[in-house]
Specification:
38% of the residues lie in helices and 20% in strands. The chain is an alpha/beta fold. The protein folds into two domains: 190 residues, 3-Layer(aba) Sandwich (Rossmann fold), CATH 3.40.50; 167 residues, Dimethylsulfoxide Reductase, domain 2 (3-Layer(aba) Sandwich), CATH 3.40.228.10. The protein has a nine-stranded mixed beta sheet with strand order 5-4-19-18-17-6-7-15-16, sandwiched between helices. Strands 10-9-8-13-14 form a five-stranded parallel beta sheet. Helix 2 crosses helix 18 and helix 9 packs parallel to helix 12. The termini are far apart. The C terminus is likely disordered. It binds iron/sulfur cluster.
């Protein structure tokens, strides 16, 4: 039987476009309307042929679940990692499991926008929704991000090309792009600032000085001439309503959270003259949700450790790359993420050396290293739930297909029940687990 589901939320990137039309025939997706190339690839390949695996061999789902429970229940210090491509209900279940096991829990934020979150905690963030960007913003800054390729519908739906109530479209907006190379986004800018690699902090500091009516020393900063800096500060100040978007080019270049702190301080300065907001260009579909859920449940957005029975927060100590690289964890549970494809070599290799359990709809590079692979029904395709857009607006996602495996949340709940029953559960091993990760 054929049907068309309208207003589907695409969960691929942080734009979470909520207007897709998905054509379904015999429980298979046959066409995707209104999406971009990334969303078409995601939805048209939604039915991946995957099977549960234990030690690389095909197993029943219940056998794989049992093997996973064994690993988790006997770990002295477990790392729970990922959570950016699943719904917030599953993220909450992962926090509950981490707490039950005295584990460390971290999300992909720690290798993308985590420094932006630290800066937000230091400086504060004036922010807005993408609806306000569409309707009001006449100056748009894209710093260290390339939405034309990474968030392909951002321009048309929310920003540069969108026709809003107060601002008509591209001709009524000015676009500033700052990056180390001339990206596809930079090619369409009114003003392109080609920065020296790692020159962000210097340029942002110079812009703050000029905006505040002070002079700068020398004839330029961070690869830009004085004339470029002056032109940029004039354009920024002339906005009726400006929005500053930033990506990993800012959060992950030298200086990390200091760069973002300086960008937030620049926006704070601009608010003395006109109105400005900031939105981080979040990459994965629900990485913003992972920070929200962890913050609600533990008080902290990522890099949380439960080994003392209460949550502790310490980026650099409880962040996944650091825990793995130092050999501080003896097992890992990876949910809806692919660290083997993105982590530095040594940290990724450790995932193949310790017993790792992967829950993912796809047989990812991390799943190939894992001791146990549990396929799941993807959020927004085989499971309903809630996801958070890059501007922190929550959106409900629908179940579109009947897929053969449970959702991430259901699997995490089953694992939690399993470890509670298992003889090596937290109660029995609490002393050793409390010691793990503390160095005592
Ligand atoms: S821009 Fe992002 S959220 Fe929108 S359809 Fe494309 S991949 Fe999906």
């Amino acid at each position: 039987m054929a049907k068309v589901v309208k207003n589907v939320v695409c969960t691929f990137c942080g734009s979470l476009c909520d207007d897709l039309e998905i054509h379904i025939e015999n429980d298979n997706i046959t066409a995707v309307k209104k999406g971009c190339a990334l969303s078409r690839t995601k939805y048209l390949n939604a039915r991946e042929e995957v099977v549960p695996l234990v030690e690389g061999k095909e197993a029943s789902f219940s056998a794989a679940l049992e093997a996973a429970v064994e690993i988790l229940a006997h770990a002295r210090h477990l790392l729970v990692y990922g959570l950016s491509s699943t719904c917030s209900e599953a993220q909450a279940a992962a926090v509950a499991l981490a707490e039950t096991l005295g584990a460390s829990i971290d999300s992909t934020s720690s290798v993308c926008h985590g420094p932006g979150t630290l800066a937000k905690q230091l400086v504060g963030i004036p922010t807005c929704t993408l609806g306000e960007v569409k309707n009001r913003a006449d100056v748009l800054v894209f710093w260290g991000c390339n939405p034309v390729e990474a968030h392909p519908r951002h321009f048309a739906r929310y920003s540069v090309l969108a026709k809003g109530l107060k601002v008509g479209g591209r001709r009524e907006r000015k676009v500033v792009v700052a990056d180390v190379r001339k990206t596809a986004t930079a090619r369409g800018a009114d003003l392109f600032l080609q920065l020296e690699p790692n020159g962000d902090f210097e340029v942002l500091t110079a812009l703050r000085a000029l905006i505040n009516g002070k002079d700068i020393v020398g004839e330029g900063a961070g690869g830009l001439t004085r004339a470029q800096l002056e032109e940029c500060s004039r354009l920024l100040k002339e906005a009726s309503y400006g929005v500053f978007f930033f990506g990993m080019g800012l959060t992950m270049s030298r200086g990390t959270h200091y760069n973002v702190s300086q960008a937030l301080a620049l926006v704070r300065d601009l608010n003395k003259y006109t109105r400005y907001s900031v939105i981080p260009m979040r990459g994965h579909g629900n990485v913003a949700g992972s920070e929200n859920v962890l913050a609600w449940q533990t008080g902290y957005p990522f890099a949380v450790n439960f080994s003392r029975g209460y949550p502790r927060y310490n980026p650099g100590e409880f962040t996944a790359v650091d825990l793995l690289r130092r050999g501080d964890v003896d097992a890992a549970l990876v949910v809806a993420a692919d660290p083997a494809a993105t982590f530095p070599g040594r940290a990724a290799a450790v995932l193949g050396e310790i017993p790792t359990v992967v829950i993912d709809p796809h047989y990812s590079a991390t799943a190939k290293l894992a001791r146990v692979y549990l396929p799941s029904a993807a959020a927004g395709i085989g499971a309903a739930g809630t996801v958070y857009r890059m501007d922190m607006v929550p959106l409900p996602v629908k179940k579109l297909l009947n897929l053969p495996y449970p959702s991430d949340k259901e699997i995490l709940d089953m694992l939690r029940e399993g470890v509670k029953k298992c003889s090596g559960s937290r109660e029995a091993g609490s002393t050793t687990r409390k010691m793990a990760g503390t160095g005592k």
